[in-house]
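Support request from a user on the community tier.

User writes: "When I paste my structure tokens into the form, the page sometimes reloads and wipes my input. The last time it worked, I copied everything first. Here is what I submitted, just in case something in the input itself triggers the reload:"
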């Protein structure tokens, strides 16, 4: 029995040495590389359940909470820093409840003092014109992002782009709303969130022409790498609003891929191209939608859909 035991120990040492060389930890029992942390300071193999290490450092809190109110009461830190606030969230908050740490009401003298402190806190949060500019612009970005329904990451990216534009003095001679809207549109492009210029201008207080002009200027000055918008990004949202099936979406993507390979997409609006592909796919899948219905969802004209539709069906060889 001694020889097999020695052989197993040798094999295990060889596996450990191999994992150290490659930087990937493997399970000594089943040789799996699916090693995860269970959040309690242990490393566990997902395949066989072996606890590989039970003295791993747990960097989480020492307390447990089972709902939001418990988590709020036990937490000893504030909200994380964010680019969407002009002071990045590193500010002082004076509570409006006028109560001390024990929950007792303050005296009238202390209440008036707290009132003055709150007032001065609001005044000194923005120390100069640059911070006031940033405060207004970031609030506009947050308002428009909420109206567009884009995720938090897009707001963060838009805020970073606006901060860069402000540092490069690109705001001079342009409206704050125009630059803020252009930065939000650029963030949507960078994060792969399909929002057309028409949709962004609908929630903005600036005309579409000015947004496009400012966007091109900011993208050029900040050297933002923008790839062309893929029309397939619009297909799921348009098809969902038109209540079309997965079959139509798949057919529309196929039409876009086939026709784009033939060079038809060059110089065309991605929203109009996607709308025409959805219209053609709805006809082919017997889920007919009128050109007016598709045009209203995609915010393009019926003429655009007709022109793109004719080009696509000719390229597909459909009569």
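"...and here is what came back when it finally went through:"
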């Amino acid at each position: 029995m001694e020889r097999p035991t020695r052989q197993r120990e040798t094999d295990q040492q060889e596996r450990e040495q191999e994992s150290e060389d490659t930087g990937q930890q493997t399970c000594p029992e089943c040789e799996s590389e699916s090693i995860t942390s269970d959040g309690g300071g242990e490393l566990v193999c997902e395949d066989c359940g072996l606890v590989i290490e039970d003295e791993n450092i747990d960097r989480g809190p020492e307390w447990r909470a089972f709902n939001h109110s418990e988590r709020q009461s036990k937490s000893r830190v504030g909200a994380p820093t964010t680019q969407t606030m002009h002071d990045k969230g590193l500010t002082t908050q004076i509570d409006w409840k006028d109560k001390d740490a024990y929950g007792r009401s303050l005296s009238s003298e202390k209440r008036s003092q707290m009132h003055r402190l709150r007032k001065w806190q609001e005044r000194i949060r923005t120390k100069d014109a640059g911070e006031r500019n940033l405060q207004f612009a970031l609030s506009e970005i947050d308002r428009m992002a909420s109206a567009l329904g884009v995720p938090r990451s897009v707001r963060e990216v838009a805020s970073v782009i606006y901060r860069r534009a402000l540092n490069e003095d690109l705001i001079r001679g342009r409206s704050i709303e125009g630059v803020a809207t252009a930065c939000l549109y650029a963030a949507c492009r960078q994060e792969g969130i399909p929002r057309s210029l028409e949709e962004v201008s609908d929630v903005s207080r600036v005309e579409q022409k000015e947004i496009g002009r400012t966007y091109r200027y900011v993208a050029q000055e900040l050297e933002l790498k923008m790839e062309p918008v893929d029309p397939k990004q619009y297909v799921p949202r348009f098809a969902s609003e038109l209540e079309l099936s997965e079959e139509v979406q798949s057919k529309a993507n196929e039409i876009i891929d086939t026709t784009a390979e033939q060079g038809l997409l060059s110089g065309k609006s991605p929203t109009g191209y996607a709308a025409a592909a959805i219209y053609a796919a709805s006809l082919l899948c017997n889920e007919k939608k009128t050109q007016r219905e598709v045009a209203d969802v995609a915010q393009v004209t019926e003429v655009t859909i007709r022109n793109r539709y004719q080009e696509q069906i000719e390229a597909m060889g459909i009569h």
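Agent notes: The reload is a front-end session timeout and is unrelated to the input. Confidence is low (pLDDT under 50) at residues 18-23. The first strand starts at residue 35 and ends at 37. Escalated to web team.
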